[in-house]
Amino acid sequence: MRIVIDGFGGDNAPDEVIRGAVAASREYNVEVIITGDEKVLESRVKALQSETGVGNLSIVNADGVIQVEDNPLEIRKSKKNSSMGVAFDLVKTEKADAIVSAGSTAALMVGGSMVIGRIKGIKRPALSPIMPSINGKYILADGGANLECRPEVLLQFGIMGSIYINKVMGVEKPRVGLLNIGTEEEKGRELEQQAYALFKSTSQMPNAKLNFVGNVEAREVPLGGCDVIVTDGFTGNIYLKTVEGMGGFMKSTLKQLFGKNALTKAGYLFAKSGVADFTKKTDYRETGGSPLLGTAKPVIKAHGSSDAKAFKNAIRQAKEFVESNAIKEIERQLV
Amino acid sequence: MRIVIDGFGGDNAPDEVIRGAVAASREYNVEVIITGDEKVLESRVKALQSETGVGNLSIVNADGVIQVEDNPLEIRKSKKNSSMGVAFDLVKTEKADAIVSAGSTAALMVGGSMVIGRIKGIKRPALSPIMPSINGKYILADGGANLECRPEVLLQFGIMGSIYINKVMGVEKPRVGLLNIGTEEEKGRELEQQAYALFKSTSQMPNAKLNFVGNVEAREVPLGGCDVIVTDGFTGNIYLKTVEGMGGFMKSTLKQLFGKNALTKAGYLFAKSGVADFTKKTDYRETGGSPLLGTAKPVIKAHGSSDAKAFKNAIRQAKEFVESNAIKEIERQLV
After folding, report:
1. ipTM entry
2. For burial by CB atoms within 10 Å, which of A85, B114, B147, B160 has the most?
């Protein structure tokens, strides 16, 4: 299997991309293609080799980088030959099975929708981060790609999220919930009320398997209230970033807690294996990235601040996405 | 000063209401009126007296309770004589200066808007919880009262929140931010884009003092990114409940962290003063309740699960709200 990674996407490119790619190619037995200025990449791969060892890597030349501030539509035009543009092209022409990038989310959305293309029948792809709950993980769809959505779009997000977390992460009969301000059927805006009715009517879709558990309040989600949480991209992005902000709040609070005085500092020495468990659980680098659900080939968005570990896990995730045949299953269920 | 409290609102009424009321009346030197079935209240006040001591309490009889599942409009009709209805009437007829209730939020909204009435010019009152950040507190407007809002309504929320946190909580030049998915001016839905322009144009309101800091991402808010965070009630409620959920996530995680093994358990013994600080910081009972901003008299919504401490603090908050003259200042700035 071949995974292509955008060599110049993210804050720590290209060195951390290379480190992650080498590690992933060995650990997960995949071939990794890195796109970008080949002179720079070749020299960096060589320079890092004494540390990383030799991986199953190849380099494909590209010209420049699409920036966050660029018009994302340029990924098909003036930035067609950028590190991300070339990576998309490799997937489109079947020279790679999946793409990973920590670059511009908007450009990745456009490339996913318009260069690779959507699965037949899918109205909008959903950026779908995998997030930690107290006892496992859940997927959020949409995490920010489509600010405003129609109920039919939310239903597709629910079906796709359910298939992903089932096929890729092995969750049986995923519980799909609609993010809302209360659990009763009539709660929320017109969008939630209509979506609720639509989710309940999936028995009319002969192939769709959906375990809809109703409206779920935001407070229940981090506590394990469902496996797939569905909402529009504006609300989803607010949710996602509130969780991130509270993660920062937690870290800062733990620091204050243990830093208070000599006694609490001693407490840290005893408790640090527990702290390490906590840190690991809430570390996005352990997950990898967010799948873009609804494109005809696997697309993984890595966090902009990804380091080698995060890139390695994003490549692992891309591999698992390919192997899972989740995209075939989406095609099948949506017919 | 006289504060009226709904004797039968919330999960722990009336005993915890009585305990909180007695404590508040002594600690804050206010007269507290409790509404509800006078036979029950009299006997409970007497029964608890050996524990609570005698406070500066009076009881006003009421007939029944408005329930969460009741149509909130009934607060003006069939539930006019309920414990909440009578409490509103006492404020309206100036027999009390402010009302506190842990009962139905929707009924409290209706009573605030329609029995007490809105401040002249205010389109919608905002339920505005006070929330902890890593280095202080901030106010959220709206936390769930108005699911969909026009930009002009958000602007009023910003002005009212700014006045409350300045006059009642002493925050100088409160930083008012618009909750959004990015900081750039053009980010968000049409609502956020229009609201941004409107917030920037407050120089056209001769009396309004507003320190608008622009769009603020959800991740920055718990980290102290602004003092007043403005959004529609749907988004605000999702934000609020995500913070609550992550609070639960944190508690559960701390428990796991310290409970892992004998060593980490020993760590807890050393660190527990730090844990106590953390618990206090994130405990809503320390704050009291959420002011309803925009009504002609102070209305405080206490949490449905309030205990004596939470009720005591909600009464303190009502007292401070009255003393602050925040309502006069809202009238002045909105002209």
Report:
1. 0.93
2. B160
